Amino acid sequence: MLILGIESSCDETAAAVVQDGTRLLSNVVNSQIDIHAQYGGVVPEVAARSHLEVINPVINKALRDAHVSWGDIDAIAVTHAPGLSGSLLIGTLAAKTLALLKNKSLYPIHHVEAHVYANFITEQSNSGDSALTLPSSQPRFPMLALIVSGGHSQLVLFRDHGDYSLLGQTQDDAVGEAFDKVAKMLGLPYPGGPSIAQAAQHGDAHAYDFPKAKMSGAYDFSFSGLKTAVLRRLQREVGVDFTFPSHELPGLVNEQQRYDFAASFQRVAIETIVGKTRKAYEEHHPASVVIAGGVAANQELRRQLREALPIAIEYAPIQLCTDNAAMIATLGYYHTWRHEPTSPFELEIQPSLSMIREVDV
Length: 361
Ligand code: KG4
Ligand code: ZN
Known about the structure:
Blueprint lengths: L1 E6 L4 E8 L3 E9 L1 H5 L6 H23 L8 E7 L3 H18 L2 E6 H7 L5 E2 L18 E6 L4 E8 L2 E7 L5 H12 L5 H9 L23 H15 L16 H30 L3 E5 L6 H10 L9 H4 L4 H13 L23
Parallel strand pairs: 1-4, 3-6, 4-5, 7-10
Antiparallel strand pairs: 1-2, 2-3, 7-8, 8-9
Helix pairs in contact: 2-3, 4-11, 5-6, 5-7, 5-8, 6-8, 7-8, 8-9
5'-O-[(R)-(carboxyoxy)(hydroxy)phosphoryl]adenosine binds next to α5 and α6.
């Protein structure tokens, strides 16, 4: 079964074709990072306009790269939640129109749940893009998923496809968001995750210590306090008080301080999520652990997890950890098992829909 996936929830316009929820035929991602970098973050109106310009060419390229035509596609899966309204609208409108015109089944997909499904792609057709290093086998249930992206930080226990419980989540900032904000304070370029990771390589991860938030829920996170602790320490370090505007701080930070703050912040942020992941592992004894979302690309996270968990984790390649449509098509395939398709006349965007839909917590 061939599914065309379409993703446009934030700043990537993407389309992909996946066979039987496991084999990648094509994966096209048009990133707007260069456009938003000049503003230091995603500007919603700019994002929507850019999606509108490229959505059709991106979809056509996904079909071309997969060497398939519309007749070969069995269904369309599209991100309808959560995300920026204007951005979600463009992808869903394209999907609804194509479902009607080409007479295809249509499946609305939850972006955060889909991130987890990047881990189910274990094969790639030769005709696709450059070769990816994929996991050797699909994860097994029960599966513990750590979802860490720019918008989400959560631990989810999957008993089966579509049958999951949210163990805990961030109560304020997502971990990727904290990386982005701390990078800004240090004068490191957007997106902050990769630039903090790179700067951290030259820094002392124990130069500074920051407190870890105490949460009432065993698996809940909070990164807003860590972000403020970094800001206050940075202000003290460069000799200004708390009223000093944070956007002027980068001009006062020297190179070694920048590296040491990046490394120390990264260590504490990662220790927090790894500690909770280990606790969840010990309580639930999952058969597999998977990491999903853009922050899964972080090497310090991978290193700490290797030390903390008794089982090995197989990682999806970075191209499938950050936003893409292959994960949307993959989850779409598993939806065809247990859901009726949605009418193109009824599919609506749900910008703030949480992942807790089919759970019993
Ligand atoms: O999953 P994603 O592409 O988009 C969302 O759905 O949010 O994640 C983007 C986030 C950004 O906050 C980015 O800074 C972070 O992932 N990120 C990283 C790394 N690469 C991307 N964070 C830490 N280390 C990295 N190497
Ligand atoms: Zn995402």
